[in-house]
Specification:
Strand content: 5-15%
Structural class: alpha/beta
Strand order of the largest sheet: 8-7-6-9-10-11-12
Number of helices: 13
Largest sheet: 7 strands, parallel
Number of strands: 12
Order of helices and strands: EHEHHEHEHEHHEHEHEHEHEHEEH
Oligomer: single chain
Shape: elongated
Distance between the termini: 25 Å
Radius of gyration: 22 Å
Length: about 325
């Protein structure tokens, strides 16, 4: 008998067929409280789950006593209680490699659009405000040769550094848990402590996961230490930045602008003050949202679950200790 799997995110037909080849699949419309009740018997038999969104914690695991593997269609896994999964011996699989270049593209787009006020000025043109040669009140700031500070030198940080260094002749500063030899060799990147990164960066680009240590890592005190007129870019996780402190810094001119793909609450509430600020570029968490990359993420998630439930895990496992 094929292992039972709950699929809580739709897949392309070919990937769904591959999943069906290996498992008995029940597809549901998300890990909502209603679905958890409606499909209680299915969850009791499930050995694997695959999808994105929804909370997988100790309470959820009580509903799925046979669960052996969870595969998320994402690189981030803050919706999963890893400690609870470890206690139960459940492998958590994710997709950390396929989206690297696409997210780095998005971050560079945020750098350019924030510095040059692309979104704001395009809207002003559409509104009919361009009636004569533009003056200083329409000007942006240069990107080339400015210092880029990268907070979190993982795969995405490295890909962003490549774009900035070779494409825009930007000196690279970075802060991470440890020195990154490849970044230093390839891009002449300079490791520095957080205060130095804040003080010297013209563009502070955040690519960090959300953990207890990174929650509100950038708050009022840190924003006050940033270089006057700097730009903040966040495409990691929203709560890494204290949103209210960021709003204050944008309003009082401490920062030139912010380019944001992630927020403390998502979707961003329609009454958020961020939406009233001209110097904010706000995207709907689209860092990896291209057809090619999202397909690749779904493909990797399927292969990850197959590997986890057949004892062939070689990569992409958050907690490999449970496999021993």
């Amino acid at each position: 008998m094929k292992p039972s799997v709950v699929l809580y995110k739709s897949l392309p037909d070919d990937l769904r067929a591959r999943l069906d080849d290996h498992f008995s699949v029940t597809e549901i419309g998300g890990l909502t409280p209603e679905n958890l009740e409606k499909y209680a018997d299915v969850f009791r038999q499930a050995e694997g789950i695959l999808g994105s969104g929804g909370k997988v914690d100790a309470e959820f695991l009580q509903r799925a006593p046979k669960l052996r593997a969870a595969s998320t269609v994402s690189v981030g896994y803050d919706n999963f209680d890893v400690a609870a999964l470890n206690d139960r011996g459940v492998a958590l699989m994710h997709t950390p490699t396929v989206l690297t270049e696409t997210v780095a593209d998005t971050m560079m787009a945020l750098v350019l659009s924030s510095a040059r006020r692309v979104v704001e000025l395009a809207e002003r043109v559409k509104a009919g405000e361009w009636q004569k040669n533009v003056g200083p009140d329409w000007f942006g700031i240069d990107v080339h040769h400015k210092k880029m500070g990268i907070l979190g030198m993982g795969r995405i940080g490295l890909a962003l550094a490549q774009r900035a260094h070779f494409g825009f002749s930007m000196p690279i500063l970075y802060n991470a848990r440890k020195h990154h030899q490849e970044a230093e060799q390839r891009f002449d990147a300079r490791y520095c402590d957080l205060d130095t990164l804040l003080a010297e960066s013209d563009f502070l680009c955040i690519s960090l996961p959300l953990t207890a240590e990174t929650h509100h890592l950038i708050g009022r005190e840190q924003l006050a230490k940033m270089k006057p007129g700097a730009v903040l870019i966040n495409a990691g996780r929203g709560p890494v930045v204290d949103e209210q402190a960021l709003i204050a810094a944008l309003k009082d001119g401490t920062l030139h602008a912010a380019g944001l793909d992630v927020f403390e609450q998502e979707p961003l509430p329609v009454d958020s003050e961020l939406l009233t600020l001209r110097n904010v570029v706000a995207l709907p968490h689209i860092g990896s949202a291209t057809h090619e990359t999202r397909y690749g993420m779904a493909r990797d998630a399927v292969e990850n679950l197959i590997a986890a439930l057949t004892g062939r895990v070689e990569k992409n496992c958050v907690n490999p200790q449970v496999l021993k």
